[in-house]
Write a structure and sequence with these properties.
- The complex is a heterodimer.
- Chain A is an alpha/beta fold.
- Chain A has 16 helices and twelve strands.
- In chain A, α9 links the parallel β5 and β6.
- The two termini of chain A are 30 Å apart.
- Chain B has a single domain, classed as RNA polymerase II/Efflux pump adaptor protein, barrel-sandwich hybrid domain (OB fold (Dihydrolipoamide Acetyltransferase, E2P), Beta Barrel).
- The radius of gyration of chain B is 14 Å and the shape is globular.
- The chains are: A alpha/beta, B alpha+beta.
- Chains A and B meet through α16 of A and loops of B.
């Protein structure tokens, strides 16, 4: 058991500094900074020495859990292991020492990286053009919806409604809403896929787009995708495909061939950049020809071996990100794609699907599976069998922490009550999958024999069960001095 | 558990009707499914609600859920107590945890609602 690390505010002293600046040898111009809050004016700003700050954060970092430490089956998040060689490539001097304001003729190599990545993503997804600007998946979604809006308005046919299945990613409705659309939910059928009849009833000349996550959040592939796309297109609408689950499809099938007009990818999920700590991520958006004129500026062009930025795009929705996105994330993705090659990428998806189905088969009957439809890269169980012992998905998740495993995604998708959404990814060995399966079996047995151990879990972690409800009802968003 | 004189919807709202006025809340089943409620987004008084359209949002530790208007009408009162104590929606969903009061616009829409016995049958059908 570790000693509880105090807050940095509580170890603060007076007149302490971690670093002292050399004495000024030019006139002081504080007046230039008068509108910017400076350290002296922040009440109770912590004052600690260098060794205290180093120890504080080192100790805190030891309480963290990461993919380098153990299994991380957080469904929908694709917490795969990211080869360290990609980091090495992204850390090459030529990349880290370059600057986006440097002249284009010294940045040709960087532009080549970007253009090459765009072309490879086009080949992988079957889309006609890409922008690498969006910083993450949710920004990619809203850029994609902005492109659809721009195209419809250009046609003089602005529409109002976006249809989204109840098995889509949770960010889809908010992205559509942010772009000014009314969101209507399409129900799933018994196999956990889109109810095409329901969709047809909801379609009208007012529907701008249908946003489809494929495979959906149950891990189930939408078999009717091509037919759905044809129906939507016939009504003049667009098909947005959330490509966050692309890890199930690499080298096997392509959104562009399924009828998607616009997609986003998460380089930080599928194409190997560490994530989960708040970024940086990258959410490239790919489009078919009809949406290409609206892509954000600038676009990268190549003429006679020379790369340049093209800003002369009158129909463009404009810039969506400073410079050209999170460049070094793109470098890592390129390194990953080139090192695996076409066959390697296909194997990624094959093994991701195999691993998820291995877990699914082994835990079937021990945990409830609401949908028996074959799934791809993830599987969604529920706590239905354990509920009769008073055990909920939260208790199962917390107990996994004791067994040194990161909990799966919980209570999502909403169509499975008490959901436990498990995505092992392709990078886990059979040994680690078996360890997880054993842990889940042990927990199911504990639910029957000794549910108290689950209700009070975790027992071995840095902090025990936290009162999430109290925290959400009484949020304290910044440190406040204790009242004497 | 569920009051006999209320009407119910498939989205698990209840409505208590007194003449042209109605009180609307969410059912015990709904609050159990959502888990601990942490925030309720209420409409403004005077908002005109449309049949089956969302008029508010309930946020729990597990999910964010829309609340739908069981009938069309104008909001006359909202339960301000939910701002400071959203937990009353869990503790007493059918009485103190009411969400809004409204003036009913079209009584014909009441035909779409379920009686208690219909709602109980509906709940039995929702195995998962």
């Amino acid at each position: 058991m570790m000693i509880r690390e105090p807050l940095i505010f509580d170890i603060s002293g007076t007149e302490k500094k971690a670093f002292s600046m050399p004495e000024l040898d030019v006139p002081e111009r504080k007046d230039l900074l008068k509108d910017i809050p400076s350290r002296e004016e922040i009440e109770d700003f912590p004052q600690i020495s260098e060794i205290e700050i180093v120890r504080h954060f080192t100790r805190l970092s030891k309480t963290n859990y990461c993919i380098d430490e153990g299994f991380y089956p957080l469904g929908s998040c694709t917490m795969k292991y990211n080869p360290k060689v990609n980091e090495k490539v992204a850390a090459l001097d030529g990349f880290t020492s370059s600057h986006p304001y440097a002249a284009l003729d010294v940045n040709q190599g960087n532009l080549e990286v970007l253009k090459t990545t765009e072309k490879l993503l086009q080949e992988i997804t079957g889309m006609d053009a890409f922008t690498l600007q969006p910083s993450a998946g949710a920004q990619g979604e809203s850029v994609g919806m902005m492109l659809i809006r721009a195209c419809l308005e250009d046609r003089g046919d602005p529409r109002k409604i976006v249809l989204i299945p109840d098995s889509a990613h949770g960010t889809n409705p908010s992205s559509a809403h942010i772009c000014g659309y009314q969101v209507q939910e399409v129900k799933s059928n018994e196999s956990g896929t889109i109810d095409v009849d329901d969709l047809v009833k909801m379609l009208s000349e007012e529907v701008a787009a249908v946003m489809i996550t494929n495979p959906n959040t149950l891990g189930v592939f939408e078999n009717d995708i091509k037919r759905i796309a044809d129906i939507v297109h016939a009504k003049g609408g667009f098909v947005y495909m959330d490509g966050a689950n692309m890890n199930a499809l690499l080298g096997i099938c392509r959104p562009g061939d399924m009828g998607a007009d616009v997609i986003h990818l998460n380089l930080h999920k599928t194409f190997s950049t560490p994530h989960g700590g708040g970024g940086p991520g990258s959410g490239p958006v790919g489009v078919k020809k009809k949406l290409e004129p609206y892509l954000p500026v600038p676009l990268i062009e190549q003429n006679e071996g020379i790369y340049s930025f093209n800003y002369e795009r009158p129909k463009s929705i404009g810039r969506v990100r400073a410079f050209y996105g999170n460049f070094l994330v793109v470098v890592k993705a390129l390194a990953y794609i080139l090192s695996l090659g076409a066959e390697g990428l296909k194997e990624v998806s094959e093994i991701a699907v195999l691993n998820a189905n291995y877990i699914r088969k082994k835990l079937e009957g021990i945990y409830h599976l609401k949908y028996s439809t074959p799934a791809l890269h993830e599987c969604v169980f529920s706590d239905k069998f354990q509920k009769k012992y008073g055990v909920q998905n939260l208790d199962i998740a917390k107990r996994l922490i004791d067994l040194n495993i990161h909990p799966p995604t919980m209570s999502f998708p909403l169509i499975v009550h008490g959901a436990l959404m498990i995505e092992p990814t392709e990078t886990e060995s059979k040994r680690d999958l078996d360890m997880f399966i054993n842990a889940m079996q042990q927990i199911a047995e504990e639910a029957r024999e000794d549910p108290k151990i689950l209700k009070s879990a975790p027992h071995k972690s840095y902090v025990r069960r936290l009162d999430e409800t109290y925290a959400a009802r009484n949020p304290i968003l910044r440190w406040q001095p204790t009242q004497e | 558990m569920y009051p006999e004189d209320y009407y119910y919807t498939k989205d698990h709202e209840w409505i208590k009707i007194e003449g042209n006025k109605a009180t609307v809340g969410v059912t015990d089943f709904a609050q159990k499914q959502m888990g601990d409620v942490v925030y309720v987004e209420l409409p403004e008084i005077g908002t005109k609600l449309k049949f089956h359209k969302s008029f508010g949002v309930i946020e729990s530790v597990k999910a964010v859920s829309d609340v739908y208007a069981p009938v069309s009408g104008e909001v006359t009162e909202v339960n301000e107590d939910l701002n400071d104590a959203p937990e009353i929606l869990n503790e007493d969903p059918h009485k103190k945890g009411w969400v809004i009061k409204l003036n009913i616009e079209d009584k014909a829409e009441l035909e779409e609602l379920m009686s208690l016995s219909d709602y109980e049958k509906f709940l039995e059908g929702l195995e998962d």
